[in-house]
Amino acid sequence: MAAVNISVSRRRRVVALWGVSLGYFLVLLDLTVLSVAEPDLAASLGTSVAGLQWAAAAYTVTFGALLPAAGALADRYGAHRVFRAGIVLFSAGSLACAAAPSPEVLAVLRAVTGAAAAACVPASLAVIARLYPDGRERARAVATWAAVSGAAVALGPVCGGLLVDAAGWRAVFVVNAPIAVLVLAATAGRAVAVPGSARRIDWPVQFAACAALALLTDALVRAGSDPGAAVWPGLGALVAAALFAVRERASRAPVADRALLASAGARAGLAAGAAVGFALNGLLFVLPLLLRDRGLSAAATGWAFLPLTVPFAVNPPVTGRLVARFGPRPPILAGLSALACGGTVLAISAGTGASYPWLAVGLFSTGYGVSLVLPALATAIVRAAPDGAAGSAGGLLNAVRQIGATVGVAAMGSVTTAFGPGRAIALAALACGGGALWFARQGPAGQVK
């Protein structure tokens, strides 16, 4: 990793760090702030649970599928340029979402903002890697990045609930524009400049990946209400996945960094990221519907989420110190275990109609687990990346997280429709338990460093 320019002052590095962190804050805010708006959105646009699934999944489909390409773009053209362009497009797309006249238009515009979000996240990690070349300093910087972005998860449901009750669901998109202005101001200048490279991009492979994920999501969404209608998109997903695998194997510019994937520990870490995305985003989709059925308003639902979301903002600095001292493996295992336990408590509570304090216990365990896993995973994957490939490594980690998120929303939404929220939430516990077992099997010889 090239050393940061010594002429960049510590103060300017801190401002730049907070700027790129606020950019990730914006990306996550647009995801979590919408969760409590689901009932109002459904009533306003006359859409079903499937329509709500696509409003959420259209964002994560393009976000997840384009993250590897965005990481490659950041490495090729300079992470700071890609990051700032993504922020501008994201802000414009959010304002367009606020004016969407139908569920179909909203889903298309959410896909646009998902593509813009994809440009921001791996580029932000590459900028941090450039600003903080020392491993210990980078671990703390990534922890700050995770804490600031985690605040979006904490504030999103609360702010979203207040905005929805005051002005309707469209207000949750308007709030992005002033935040984007702050991000652009904080990331201006040479402090965040990252040189480009000769990295190539295989666009047919990227298109095949996006098509496979979109068709898989469509199949899962349809399966909840009409299993027969899921057959054709399911077959299309298999064909697109096969084309992706064939082209990826022969490509001179593969989507996934082969040197990174050669590590069994890195593969287990990526699987853990997918499990966290599956559980977190699936829960953020299902729980508002559960709480609505219990008579809670949008604002009350936002407050009810606090045991889940507050640890995202509070705990990452502690996780950063743990990673700097003990390495990423212990926090990752502890976090996955907490996620599995939290999902189990939530599933039992939802299935039995238990009172809110039991839900709060499950929510806190889940949120605490996420706050342990994600900063540690980000540090581990960026540390394992070859020189000049931090953007691609960050893109790959966030891609598998968003793929997990997309599948989580589609699968848990469909299971909720067919069997109720208790069984749907149990899927989150199973995913994180499986991720913990896989990661635990990677001993010292195969673990991420």
TrEMBL record:
All residue ranges annotated as the Major facilitator superfamily (MFS) profile domain in the record: 16-447
Primary localisation category: membrane
CDD domains given in the database record: MFS_MMR_MDR_like (cd17321)
GO MF terms, alphabetically ordered: transmembrane transporter activity
Cell location: Cell membrane
Keywords noted in UniProt: Membrane, Transmembrane, Transmembrane helix, Transport
Record bears the keyword Transport: yes
InterPro entries in the cross-refs: MFS, MFS_dom, MFS_trans_sf
Pfam families named among the record's database cross-references: MFS_1
Membrane topology: Multi-pass membrane protein
Top-level taxon in the UniProt lineage: Bacteria
Any one annotated GO CC term: plasma membrane
Membrane-spanning ranges: 15-37, 49-70, 82-101, 107-129, 141-163, 169-193, 205-223, 229-247, 268-290, 330-350, 356-377
Protein name: DHA2 family methylenomycin A resistance protein-like MFS transporter
Lineage per the UniProt record: Bacteria, Bacillati, Actinomycetota, Actinomycetes, Streptosporangiales
